[in-house]
Design goal:
Elements (H helix, E strand, L loop, with lengths): L4 E2 L2 E3 L2 E3 L6 E5 L6 E6 L3 H20 L2 H17 L1 H12 L3 H22 L6 E5 L2 E5 L6 E5 L6 H13 L3 E5 L6
Helix pairs in contact: 2-4, 3-4, 4-5
Length: about 180
Amino acid sequence: MEAKKRLANFIAGEFVEPLNGKYIDSFNPATGEADCEVPDSDEADVAKAVQAAKKAFPAWAKLTPEQRSKILLRIADLIEQNLESFAQEESRDQGKPVSLARAMDIPRAVANFRFFASAVLHHEEASTLYEGSVNYTVRTPLGVAGLISPWYEPSTRTKHSNALMLGICRCIYLHGRLLRL
């Protein structure tokens, strides 16, 4: 039997232990066995992640849509290049057959990143007249957004949300099981 993995938070470009030092077991739904430990993060970890995202935001906000698109495409390529290992982890995480993760879930994640890499290039500014005023929709960076996903959420949905959020120019704090991948 292989030893349980111990996962870490990913904050400011580094894998770090939770500030409180606490972990909880993650169970493989198919076997019922605890196969890894995940950080039992709390408010202090969230604050650290938000601060890191705020620090990263100005540089990210200066990127052009083309530059953000290239980053999203690179993420899609890396997921695709590591499809088998992602499929194995998704299977352990969700208790589903590896064949399903390999044929559907991971390719869908790749497709999500590629979709939003393209979409970020095709958004237009808009204006509408409304009761004597003009409303403008301007796609400019707004700031840090939080994305909290439940532990049982399939990683493809989380990746879909990440791709969308990154494409429309925000820095993200993500809490959830995606850190397993």
